[in-house]
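quick one, 398 residues, struct below
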Amino acid sequence: MNTFNTVLPPVKIYVMKKLILLLFIVTVACKQDGKKKQLLAQERLAELEIKLDSIFEQVVKPGDPGAALMVAYEGEILIGKGYGLKNLKTKDPITVNTNMRMGSVSKQFTALAVLALVDQGKLSLSDTVYNIYPYDVFRNVTIEQLLHHTSGLADAEEAFFTEWDSTRIAQNKDVVDFYEKNPPSQSDPGTQWQYNNGTYELLAAIVEEVSGQDFADFSREHVFKKAGMNRTHFFNLAKPTEIKKRAYCYEKDSLGQWQEVDGHYLNGLLGAGGMYTSISDYFSYTQALRSKSIVSPETHEYIFTTTDIPIPVGEGEALAFLEGKKSFYAKGWEVSEDLATHGGGWFGTNTFVIHHLQRPLDIAIFMNNDRLFSSSLIEDTYQAVMTYLQEQNDREHN
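---
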């Protein structure tokens, strides 16, 4: 009868003990190495924040209107904070939840409202505007040309600066009325690129005409909610609604004193601008944009599809990191190789956003004053972030 001896020889017991001890040492070492790497990563991120604080504090002085900053990478906010005040009367500071006026960054959301109608089968990008408003000036102009600034149409908003009764608040229906008079076009449709705020305000009117909804309501239901932007609004001065946690817009007068400038008569125009959002809401939007969850995946592909007509040199974003790159306009974005960018400027507000097309990086700077483009803030922020990411990558691979 065979028996199984369960008692191991002394040599085997010794070897097993050594293996267990070695495994324990390796496990502890790995944990310590992981903690060390985590601490180093936290230190490097803290260094980036200190660097960015220094950059912003050169532009935003204590007691002044200021800025909100977002640096998001790989689905997380690396840096999200405010500098300066949202309200000079109450001295309330800007935070990641402060709603700030977007200026022309609003255009990408107007484009998404149009694409939502495409998703619903109510509109095609190849449709002519003449199908909606049968005015001769629109006969050969397509919806996509409006989106790409290649319609050749006159700019209604530009005309309103000199031809409008400034005691009345201009609204989008007034833009439609402007085009009904068939003003001379700047060029034939689809032949030249010319930035045009009026055509984006026309797009907002088209959204209302086709959907049967107020533009702000349609955008909230079909764009903002889908993007997780629960505190974002289009603001119409002719139909004022409360915007909670709002930053007021400021510019300096001839005596160097900050003055609130929210009451301009063109602040009833929506589409080219007029949107208020916060850093926290904008982060949600960037993640929805990357996950293609705002419109259908098929329609999403249109967002960064550009016109074939390049933006003329000197008319795009004049930034060193875009120098030498050809830029083409998409749906509310200027696309330059691996970057999609857009700036916004209006009375008492400057904004700039960067959406990297090849890596999960988004940067946003919102200001409730007009100092962004007269400083090196965008350049310095971008370079600091890219240096941080490069050093992070180098350390991970060494």
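The mean pLDDT is 92.
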